[in-house]
Amino acid sequence: MLDLVVKAVAYSSCIGIGAAAITLVYNATRTFNFAHASMVAWGMYVVFAATYLLGYTPYYHLPLAALFGSLLGLAIYGAVNRRLLRAKAKEISLMMSTLGVDLILFGFLNVFSDYLLKVYRLPAKYFILETRDFTVEFAGVQVRLVGLVAPVVLILSVVLLHTFLTKTKLGIAMRASIENPELAGLSGVNPELTYVLAWIIGGALAGLSGGLLSLVITGYTAVGMTIVVTFFAGAIVGGLYSVYGSILGGFLVGLGEYLGVALLASLVGGWIYAYRPAIPLAVMAATLLTQPGGLATLLRGGRR
Amino acid sequence: MIELPPVVLQVIVNFSIGLIVATSLNIEVGFLGIPQFGRLLAVIAGAIVAAALPGRILAAYLGLPWGAEYAYHLYNFGIVARINDFLASNPAISIGVLILTLVLAAAIGGVIGYLCAYPALRLKEAYLGITLLAFGDLLMNIAWNYDPLVGGTTGVWVVDPFRFVGAGGTRFTFSALFILAVAIVVFIYAELLARSPFGRVLKAVRDAEVAAGVYGKDIVGIRTQTLIIGGAIAATAGALWALFTGSMKAYTYTRLTWTFWPWAFMMLGGTGNNLGVLLGVLLYTVARTAIILYKEALSTVIPISPEWLEYIMIGLVVVAVVLFRPQGIIPEKPTLALPKSRVKAIAESLEKS
Hints:
The structure holds 2 protein chains of 2 kinds.
Chain A: H1 2-29, H2 36-54, H3 62-86, H4 91-119, E1 135-138, E2 141-144, H5 146-167, H6 169-179, H7 181-186, H8 191-213, H9 223-238, H10 243-268, H11 278-290, H12 294-299
Antiparallel strand pairs in A: 1-2
Helix pairs in contact in A: 1-5, 1-8, 1-9, 1-10, 2-3, 2-4, 2-8, 2-9, 3-4, 3-8, 5-6, 6-8, 9-10, 9-11
Chain B: H1 6-31, H2 39-61, H3 73-88, H4 91-122, H5 125-145, H6 147-150, E1 156-157, H7 169-195, H8 197-207, H9 209-214, H10 219-245, E2 247-248, H11 255-269, H12 274-293, H13 295-301, H14 306-324, H15 340-352
Antiparallel strand pairs in B: 1-2
Helix pairs in contact in B: 1-7, 1-10, 1-11, 1-12, 2-4, 2-5, 2-10, 4-10, 7-8, 11-12, 11-14
């Protein structure tokens, strides 16, 4: 039982980190980022390739995944998003542009995977890094280290993000620009700086989330497409305009998916496991239809 | 009967199915401005109808098992083979089954459109798009896992109402031409819709919802009606695809192929313009077939597997269209309320007076 909880916590922490990335980018740039799927998948593949080619433990390569994610974010902003934001494009156009980017990133990820397979003979079609993880004893049970590292990374990201947004001048300017772009612009804040920072931080969080996920779930190139709805669900359950709400929402959706299905299975039988991907979808649809403001609204007592 | 080569058949079927789905999307997105990211929902519902209902009705009629065991993979093949033998010798019943399947699929698609109106009236933009996307994935997940419906992970065989014209190439030629005919009918319908008063109301609601409401247009009713029409057309495409391929496996119905690609066709051709959508689908179908045909030659020039090249190509097209030509290849033109000759006559009579 404890083993399962630890696994669920590891998975949920990854979802929380990723959901924060979606919300940050959406709030700063009005762009609902479909490319998040492939950014997470790239994060997984970066950790996978680095672990096999350079050695060391997968944890060692997490910063590399974050760095790669932020570079992807920067590239998306520079090549696509900046022009559209300057042209004051509609929300749907912004969404569609990231969908195109997602397909491009997915194509290149497959090329990269083929390359790893052909040149280095790595098992790049499907890989499990879980076996490269350490086992530690926790409360008398042998568990994988990622179950302890992932929540620590999540908390660290929250603390860093919070410090950045409330204590540094850049972070405060960024928040001002999100809350009221015109007023912030009049006070001399450059809105483009907000956009580029959101993409860099969002990309880093997406890459980090993917890097950690490589220790939790099986990696394959289409993993982003499968799992991205869970991230969307997390962000939306959190309210989609509060980064902290999204982290909490992502964590809860992940827990619900992992533990909820185990709980249901003990009640109605094991056949329910097959429907696991339906849980975040159902939670998300229910949240949107009954409480579109998400957790953030509930926590603030009904106010936006 | 003439037999067309497989490549030509492939182009015809991909073009026709793509045109039906993209046209239904265009009615909702292009004319009314609903962010329909859940096209998959109606398409897969249509495919489920085609895979689950006509086979069961015929099995019951022929005294074969038609309950949950119909979809069980060990029985399903035998049952469907016997039904197909029966259909091959009964053209009248085959045609009846074909029409009944399409009507049922369209009806279910319409019901789904009606249900989608609930979120569509309450949510906007990204929120609505993601909700509809979630619905589509939910239905796919259920069809993939709930065995008694369409066989779950093993899938089911679909009865073949085209069998009576002959086997092999003749059957595929006939069915491809039938699908093309349906696509042409759908296209003409969408064109008539765009030119009708209803089509103009849709564009009015899209461009200025408040103003349309002030002039007494029933916006709730208009949205619901459009979602019903779009859902019915998309479900027909799903049913046709399942009937043509002769089998149904839920996992092959992904949001990528049935939602995102039609979006790409539509945006490439020109959102809000039926002719543009047709051109977008045609260009893409031809390009894709060319890639598959010249696979060998391509892989010597570009060191990328053609399969991934396709994704990169579509992605680049989507990004390029959004960035450089948001209106598409053929931009939307304002439709005239009256034929051109009558507008001219009125203008002349005004000049005289």
